[in-house]
Amino acid sequence: MGKKKSSESSEFSKADLPKVDIGIAPASREEIAQGLSRLLADTYTLYLKTHNFHWNVTGPMFNTLHLMFEAQYMELSLAVDLIAERIRALGYPAPATYSEYAKLTSIPETAGVPKATEMIQLLVEGQEAVVRTARSLFPSASEVHDEPTADLLTQRMTLHEKNAWMLRSLLE
Ligand SMILES: [Fe+2]
Predict the structure, then answer these.
(1) CA 16 to ligand 1 center in whole angstroms
(2) Is the pTM above the cut of 0.85?
(3) Closest residue by Cα to residue 142 from 20, 42, 24
(4) How much distance in Å is there from the Cα of 55 to the middle of ligand 1?
(5) Cα 132 → chain centroid
(6) Which range, of 18-22, 52-56, 97-101, 126-130, averages the lowest pLDDT?
């Protein structure tokens, strides 16, 4: 991959943004959209890691983990749509390339194929990372009464905290 800066970058022209008059100032909408873009990148990255582990897990816990990871990646694959569409409703483009996600996410990629218990630990850390990102956006959303975003963040935090607990319990 070359180093050209280009049409593939995440930059977009502000002149192309639609006029959106929903009672939230443009600067606040932009801040929230940027935060949601980080949440989208985290969610997509965790989705891929979970699907990876669903495919590659081995060992005596295979059946339990294969199925648990499946339920989790399927939920994540639906969640990215809700987050991206909230960004669009705020008037901004949703990032949707692996290079943008790599820049925006707080979740590192996992190289190779870890042992099953390490997979569980990595997914606990991934679930917790998404919760932290979602929680960090909460003040900017509530400050401007962006209830739809706050509601989405609440749902995502509830789900990821529950997933983290269930995964963590397998290690105790
Ligand atoms: Fe499968």
Answers:
(1) 41
(2) yes
(3) 24
(4) 7
(5) 11
(6) 18-22
